[in-house]
């Protein structure tokens, strides 16, 4: 589990991050795979700010980070067994499903789908639960540049961020797979799954989908 922000400062870090997010700011956060940029998914101005500071194409979707599996049913039309969600979440996966009307229409307006993340990271789960709403989440780097496993690697973005939460080195610096980000899986078609991005957990994820739940692989595309 996540260590540092030291437990003593954990609550203060959470409170500070929630306050900034509620004010429409963009905050850098540690996750189970990479450092990310988070903002309130309900705040259209904050969504625009994320695209602007990353230099990201507005045709590329942002994922939504939630605090618990039960929240997925509020923001998505779930067409897989609840056990499947609980087997994969929290974890280094992004599950793409049909979005519900609850999400801000300015979030990925070009697609009826949305990618859901519940990172296997104590700070992020606490943050999402304390914030009590969906967070838009993307990697903390300029578009097309390498993803970040520590805060120094996205130093260029610091001046444009309201808060940077330093959770230390992600993945202990051992595993290059971490830098691949989460495994992105399309679950929007009943009985099938499509791998949109192999990411860092491809084998374990496909084993669960195929062997335990009998889903069939299909070609899929997020866009």
TrEMBL record:
The keyword Mitochondrion applies. Transmembrane segments: none annotated. GO terms for cellular component: mitochondrion; plasma membrane. Its EC number is 2.7.7.87. It is found in: Cell membrane; Cytoplasm; Mitochondrion. Keywords: Cell membrane, Cytoplasm, Membrane, Mitochondrion, Transferase, Transit peptide. GO terms for molecular function: double-stranded RNA binding; L-threonylcarbamoyladenylate synthase. It catalyses: L-threonine + hydrogencarbonate + ATP = L-threonylcarbamoyladenylate + diphosphate + H2O. It is a peripheral membrane protein. It comes from the Eukaryota. Residues 11-201 form the YrdC-like domain. Cytoplasmic and mitochondrial threonylcarbamoyl-AMP synthase required for the formation of a threonylcarbamoyl group on adenosine at position 37 (t(6)A37) in tRNAs that read codons beginning with adenine. Catalyzes the conversion of L-threonine, HCO(3)(-)/CO(2) and ATP to give threonylcarbamoyl-AMP (TC-AMP) as the acyladenylate intermediate, with the release of diphosphate. Participates in t(6)A37 formation in cytoplasmic and mitochondrial tRNAs. May regulate the activity of some transporters. Belongs to the SUA5 family. Interacts with RSC1A1. This is Threonylcarbamoyl-AMP synthase. The gene is YRDC.
